[in-house]
Amino acid sequence: MKILKFGGTSVGSAHNMRLVANLISAEEPKMVVLSAMSGTTNKLVEIANKLYQQQTKEALDLTENLHKIYREVINELYTTEKKKFAALDFLLSHIDFIKSLATGPFSIREERAILAQGELLSTHLFQFLLEELNQNSVLLPALSFMRIDENEEPDLTFLEEELTALLAKYPQSNLFITQGYICRNAFGEIDNLKRGGSDYSASLIGAAVQASEIQIWTDIDGMHNNDPRVVPDTYPIAELSFDEAAELAYFGAKILHPSSVLPAKQKNIPVKLLNTMQPEAKGTTISAQSSGKSIKAVAAKDGIVAINVKSSRMLLAYGFLRRIFEVFEEYKTPIDMVTTSEVAVSLTIDNTKYLPEIIAELKEFGSVQVDTDQTIICLVGDSIEEVPGTTLKIFKSLKDIPLRMISYGGSKNNISLLIATADKKQALKALNTGVFERIAEHA
Ligand code: ASP
Ligand code: MG
């Protein structure tokens, strides 16, 4: 079985939904995982925010606006009156549900129930479309098999058992549709896998059914060597290893949710990144195979804070780094980059929730300097250190840009540099010509 996940823009209009219906029409067994239509989850977040602020009228207006948008989609999507009515009816019941939450106390439970509406709508509308097109498909409710535990980690055993049992009920069916992103939590309540989590759903489902392939369909032709929003002449990378893809996704390549690589890697299932608007494009294949040595891509992650702790007590001492790291552990704040000298350590974080508390505790060790508005530039590839001249090319390209931190040798897959966010565009452009020029000719 193959897993095909379609993102928000792929199901973002009646026209695109029909493109998707066409793409999945072949006979081979598949499970289709859908996001909410593009823009919907953001609107649902807005509605929930209004309800938190007890701005009931604004929330109801936004809900009515959503109703209108979906009515238009429905009118365009179906050709038969029968399906149109069924879809409008379904829509109305969900709009009424959101409205019903506008009265009464509003908590994170109601918020999560609201956030789930986008995927529930997109999958049902799509299922109605397939029925109208006489494509034989079964809609499987993700809320019956996708579950997270008390630590908000996916419950893999439950997923595998429930999904296998559910699929066994339909031995004649080759086409299944389900929701990405949404799940239940350890208390049985509606919850989600965090924003952008539909990729993660697809990967978890793929691992649970031991799929032959996981396809992530978006509106770009694969993972690019550089950020296409910043650099004009980027190109899709044909092949990446799981480790390279994970680094790129984590360090800013928006096309793939970072958590979604691991389940596929663990079960050795290739992941393909494909373009719904250009299905014939080769896209990117992520697999266990080595994709050749050298730097493949660069990604940038903004919103980074660099913290430097300087202490003469560190000189020749042991246990010093552990004590510093413990401060971050205490505040559940992950560290991304680390560099050390004999008397100082610099590290970066992107979650600033407990920054004041962390700084206060670090001050007990020595002087603390904090730099905000930093960006990690992450160059990703395989066996980077075995390709002579790689670092020379990187530093030559960035000769005019101050480098705050350099991290090299932590893995064979990346070199990370910390720069001021103001220098990001210039850095990405300079790397595109300085590091990717030769590869660019082949692309
Ligand atoms: N609809 C959710 C979001 O916008 C999940 C997803 O699209 O992956 O974050
Ligand atoms: Mg996405």
From TrEMBL:
Keywords: Amino-acid biosynthesis, ATP-binding, Kinase, Nucleotide-binding, Transferase
Lineage: superkingdom: Bacteria
Location of the Aspartate/glutamate/uridylate kinase domain: 2-275
Annotated signal sequence range: none
GO MF annotation list: aspartate kinase activity; ATP binding
Domain Aspartokinase ACT: 377-432
Any one GO BP annotation for this protein: threonine biosynthetic process
Gene3D superfamilies named among the record's database cross-references: 3.30.70.260, Acetylglutamate kinase-like
InterPro entries named in the record: AceGlu_kinase-like_sf (IPR036393), ACT-like_dom_sf (IPR045865), ACT_Aspartokinase (IPR054352), Asp/Glu/Uridylate_kinase (IPR001048), Asp_kin_monofn (IPR005260), Asp_kinase (IPR001341), Aspartate_kinase_CS (IPR018042)
Record field: catalytic activity: L-aspartate + ATP = 4-phospho-L-aspartate + ADP
SUPFAM superfamilies the UniProt entry points to: ACT-like, Carbamate kinase-like
GO terms for cellular component: cytosol
Chain residues that bind ATP: 5-8, 218-219, 229
Keyword Kinase set for record: yes
Positions contributing to substrate binding: 41, 119
Pathway: Amino-acid biosynthesis; L-methionine biosynthesis via de novo pathway; L-homoserine from L-aspartate: step 1/3; Amino-acid biosynthesis; L-lysine biosynthesis via DAP pathway; (S)-tetrahydrodipicolinate from L-aspartate: step 1/4; Amino-acid biosynthesis; L-threonine biosynthesis; L-threonine from L-aspartate: step 1/5
EC number(s) from the headed UniProt entry: 2.7.2.4
PANTHER family: ASPARTATE KINASE, ASPARTOKINASE
Descriptive protein name: Aspartokinase
